[in-house]
Amino acid sequence: MSKILIRGAKVLGGEVADVLIDGEIIAEIGTGLAADDAQVVEAEGQILLPGLVDLHTHLREPGREDSETVLTGTRAAASGGFTAVFAMANTHPVADSAGVVEQVYRLGKEAGYCDVQPIGAVTVGLEGKKLAELGAMHDSAAGVTVFSDDGKCVDDAVIMRRALEYVKAFGGVVAQHAQEPRLTEGAQMNEGVVSAELGLGGWPAVAEESIIARDVLLAEHVGSRVHICHLSTAGSVEIVRWAKSRGIDVTAEVTPHHLLLTDELVRTYDPVYKVNPPLRTERDVTALREALADGTIDIVATDHAPHPHEDKDCEWAAAAMGMVGLETALSVVQQTMVETGLLDWAGVADRMSFAPARIGRAAGHGRPVSAGEPANLTLVDPAYRGEVDPADFASRSRNTPYEGRELPGRVTHTFLRGRATLVDGKLA
Amino acid sequence: MPSLSPRSHTPMMRHLISAADLTRDDAVLILDTAEEMARVADRPIKKLPTLRGRTVCNLFFEDSTRTRISFEAAEKRLSADVINFAAKGSSVSKGESLKDTAQTLEAMGVDAVVIRHGASGAPYRLATSGWIDAPVINAGDGTHQHPTQALLDAFTMRRRLVGRDTGLGRDLDGKRITLVGDVLHSRVARSNVDLLHTLGAEVTLVAPPTLVPVGVESWPCEVSYDLDSVLAKSDAVMMLRVQRERMNAAFFPTEREYSRRYGLDGRRMAKMPEHAIVMHPGPMVRGMEITAEVADSDRCTVVEQVANGVSTRMAVLYLLLGGAEFTAPASPRTTEES
Q: Looking at the complex, does the CB of residue B145 fall below 8 Å from at least one CB of chain A?
């Protein structure tokens, strides 16, 4: 059936309307729509959003298929309401060549659950020494537009400058994992009161902030655009705010977990809370929420980082860093931003669809919910309340910090170019 | 003196992970029990039957001859069966995880695990993750905690500053204790600050600012960068070990400069009150942290601390394992036969 009629949803949280999907596009929006040959989705009380776009996902394939594959990761993405994800380059082998990014791109196409846009490494092997073939990756079938050594910081100022300059030729953007390596040697968690008590190596805020400060100045100097991954400190917010006020072309992201969780949780020594950058303080969380609300931080990105059970079921120091996030992102944003009154659903659509698609130049995504647009859509039931059960996850890994925690909201349907990838909360 | 039994007191926590977990009453009970245990050491046959038939595993993932021998002596004096596990050359060096090792020990019926680990929080994970049911005693984890070291230090201070017999039942209320050296990397410092505060002492940390952790302001103690200014008001000065490799990370310029500003020599010791003692958890770096003159003086308690470590660890094992009722034996013979 090529027609789908979504009946009675709040479009972007505003007016209640019916939305008719015909083929790959939104054919009509109105009230009292009828289409005898359409499959009907009753959506009373639900909110229809543009399909979510995640600018920061780890799909682990190639190389760590025990953690995640493109197929399982994109199934998780569809479950979370995403219609496009940008796959980070720190795979094995590293996505630093046209061959690897094309492989990831092709696997995404074959999986069919959401569009996979590979991110290319900035430097060969993420080693920070030699620029990868950025142009070749852009020119490949994958059409790479975002470049990042995520997991590692491009700490050499000259390499960073050259990367920023080079991608201007094809409108690319460098996404920086801001972490001054010397200041974070042996770091295990946020540096502060809790790290002092727990005897865990401290990860100072300034290690993030100093790199951001340097990079916005470099971006200004060379007239390029830079994107800052996973902001985690109040100081980082201030630097980005200053840079934007100065007209520097900088964008920034925050993860759902940095909007909700603090380093107090590390007192459990439970590695499920071990993440890079580390969970910070309540003050930082407040600043990040406010910055996302006022637009200083442009987008929410999941930093979905799947790890198998054995990589987390161990002592803190030995545990891998990261947590899964695709399937809980919207719920966390609802709790931290919508239910606190900081952001309305139109704001959510901007931070989780329009803006990330714009930054990553994801064609066909982050478009208005309007007639004639590609039918990349997400339907969410905001009244839902339920405990997170990782057994329900589509992701191959279950390293979530929210197990047993009640979160609001549930994605009921996801549509990728008019095809349902999620129906009543079940993968299609 | 009344006999001590875990059953006659509010039980301590099931594990001993952090000195911060101990209440004042817990800590005083351990110190009092340690005094009882110390009497065993004064006897020709230094043995009690208390943990007969119980198996204790010393699980050492990090080298530590002194602490391991101290625990082993304590366990053997309580008649426990002892398994020593060193990570080097073991299945751990072949990639086996802490969890796997713990579950192996559990399957072997171990009654308690004494763990030393280079990773902060490893004993906490072992105790709380469900990998193992046996009580866990932290014998030092990373830069986090070393609670039995703090207990033996407090025991030593109480004996010297309050009195061996007069100290029973008492804490360290009002005593002024100064800890000097690498606080940043010291589990001994963290444990001592927690325990000494619980026992009513006033603690001052002295170190170069580079070796004071960010976040120390939340600790129940004072911080000074000037050793000379605090010596005259210290009842005990505890020197902390400084690892020479710290110099490579620019924590201080040279050994000589460190020694000049933070080393304890005879001139500085003379500024201390007459009754004040000098402590060190060992091993000492003579010449840098402490001069031979100070280390070998009567005021230095390093050797006593080692002896007290065995008594204190006996007390902890006895109380945590809830062994048979303990009555200080009347004679060596009855000790062996009771």
A: yes
* Boundaries of domain holding B201: 147-302
Instruction: Say if residue A145 is exposed, middle or buried (CB neighbours under 10 Å; 0-12, 13-18, 19+).
Output: buried
| Per-residue pLDDT, B333 | 35
B173 and B290 housed in the same domain: yes
Q: Who among A196, A270, A317 is closest to B119 (CB)?
A: A317
| Closest alpha carbon to B68 in B306, B329, B298 | B306
Minimal C-alpha gap between A43 and chain B (Å): 43
The CATH class of the A3-47+373-427 domain is mainly beta
Q: What residue segments make up the domains of chain A, in order of their start?
A: 3-47+373-427, 51-360
Shortest alpha-carbon distance between residue A318 and chain B (Å): 8
Residue B143, annotated ligand binder? no
Contact map slice: A 296-355 vs B, CB within 8 A: 310, 313-318
Tens of pLDDT, residues A214-258: 999 999 999 999 999 999 999 999 999 999 999 999 999 999 999
Tell me: do B19 and B138 sit in the same domain: yes
CATH assignment of the domain containing B116 = 3.40.50.1370
- Cα–Cα distance between B272 and B261 in angstroms, integer? 16
Supply the pTM of this predicted model. 0.91
pLDDT in tens, A21-75: 999 999 999 999 988 899 999 999 999 999 999 999 999 999 999 999 999 999 9
DSSP string, B233-292: T-SEEEEPP--GGGGGGTSSS-HHHHHHHH-B-HHHHTTS-TT-EEE--S---BTTTB-H
Q: State the binding site of A for Zn(2+).
A: 56, 58, 150, 177, 230, 303
User: Residue B93 — pLDDT band, cuts 50, 70, 90?
Assistant: low
Confidence of residue B22 (pLDDT cuts 50, 70, 90): very high
Q: What is the count of structural domains for chain B?
A: 2
User: B192 with B264, same domain?
Assistant: yes
Q: Residue A25, class by beta-carbon neighbours within 10 Å (0-12 exposed, 13-18 middle, 19+ buried)?
A: middle
CATH domain A51-360 topology: TIM Barrel (3.20.20)
Residue B198, domain member (yes or no) = yes
CB contact under 8 A, B118 and A317: yes
Q: ∠B256-B258-B263 over CA atoms, to 5°?
A: 100
Q: Do the Cβ atoms of B120 and A197 come within 8 Å?
A: no
Interval A384-414: pLDDT, tens: 999 999 999 999 999 999 999 999 999 999 9
Distance CA B150, CA A253 (A): 45
Type of residue at A418: G
SS3 at position B44? coil
Report the alpha-carbon distance of residue A137 to residue A120 in Å, rounded.
7
Q: What is the pLDDT of residue B55?
A: 96
Kindly list the catalytic residues of A. Answer: 303
User: Quick check: helix, strand or coil at residue B82?
Assistant: strand
Same domain, B158 and B289: yes
Q: What is the pLDDT of residues B142-166, one digit of tens each?
A: 999 999 999 999 999 999 999 999 9
Residue positions of A in the annotated binding site for substrate? 58-60, 90, 276, 307
Q: How far is CA A339 from CA A332, A334, A336, A381, in A?
A: 10, 6, 6, 14
